[in-house]
Each structure stands twice: as C-alpha cells, then as structure tokens.
Amino acid sequence: MIAWLADPPFFGGPGQGVRQLVELFTAFGLTALIGLEREIQGKSAGLRTQTIVGLAAALILLVSKYGFSDVLVQGLVVVDPSRVAAQIVSGIGFLGAGIIIFRRGSVHGLTTAAAVWESAAIGMAAGSGLLLLACVVTAMHFLIILGFMPLAKRLASRLSGSIRVHVTYADDREVLAAVLQACDRRDWQLAELEADPAGGAFLTLSGNGIRQAPSALARIDGVTAVRQIDDDPD
Prior knowledge:
Layout lengths: L1 H4 L2 H5 L5 H23 L6 H20 L15 H18 L1 E3 L2 E3 L1 H18 L3 H28 L1 E10 L5 H11 L3 E7 L5 E8 L4 H6 L4 E7 L5
Antiparallel strand pairs: 1-2, 3-5, 3-6, 4-5
Helix pairs in contact: 3-4, 3-6, 3-7, 4-5, 4-6, 5-6, 6-7
Protein name: Putative magnesium transport MgtC family protein
Organism: Mycolicibacterium madagascariense
Family: Belongs to the MgtC/SapB family.
C-alpha cells in the first residue's frame, strides 16, 4: 500500500507538477491579500472566504485541464476544459447572492459579493497559468478599493447626489425641526424621514454639496451624533 502511494505516477502524473503547485500557491497568495483587505475593513467575506474561493477555483480549473487525461482517446473521447470554468462563474453567483442583503431601504454587501467573484476569477486565472494577469488584477483591486473611494467622495462633495444619515438628538428639545430648517437653508431636499425606535431618525437627503451634510448637521445645537449610512456597506 505504501509503495503504491509512493509510486511516482500517483503523485507526479499529468497536472501534478511544480507548475501546477506554483499556480495554486499564486491563487492562494493573491486571494489571501484580497481577503486580508476585506478582513481589515470588517466585511462579512474576509480572509478565509476569499482565500478558499480563489484556491478552490484554481483547483477546479486544474482538474478541468488535467483531471481527465486518463480517459481521453484520440478521435473518440474529447473534453472541453472551458466547460468547468463556465460552471465556476455560475456557482460563484449563488455564493455572492447570499452575501447581498436588503436592509432599511438600502442594499448591503455588493462590493463584498463582487470581491468574492473577483477572487474566483483570480483563482481561475492562476489555475490557467495566466499568473501575470492574476497579479495585475489583484493590484487593480487595491487601486479600486483604496484609491477610488477618496476620489468618489471628493467629487461627490462638489456635485449633487444623495446620502442617508442617522441623526441622534436630545429628546427634550425641538432639534429635529432645527435639522430640517438647516437642510432647507442649504437647499437639501428631504427624500425620506424615518424615526428610529432606538432613538433619533434616519434622513435621506439630496442636493449640491450633500457630502458636507454630516458635519453640518453635527454642529446643530442639540444634535449628539450624526452617522452616514453608506449605500453599500459591504
């Protein structure tokens, strides 16, 4: 039994060489970086989820490429390695759908679901031997996550848009009326007002310079806290 397990063809058959190990470890390392970023951000799909998805996608693709070599017969049995890759894309869609939730009138988890899909794509690229593309997409992920958010906030502060905020204020004062008056003075339109049973209120505001609303509302006498609710707190 031991001699059979140690037989070189058992461990060194087609698709079980150094190249495939490098591809697997590349998928592991790159998706672990993405998972670490998600973990630091406190997101639901963090280090373990992203790494498992990327590593599994790479392994499945390697199985699709090399796992059926013993049943291939020239001119009789032919397989298409791309068929399993297509099923990975479909399967990840179900996993991503489980991450996305709808709460308090807004969608949560879109970016995290997209990151899981991205990890699967990086794992597939690594498993296909496209290591350079896998590395480039990983670098682009950090450019998108770390670079686009400040740029988007800077642009939104100058352009019109909408935000949702939670305002906590003293119950014994007519603070909410002062908040609404402050919004009216700045031509911010109130699209939605919802009382919070735990205290305070949810406001959905729109207008020019709307990104300045949290700091402006926090300066109103009687307001104890203002928290902006992201459109996609993934």
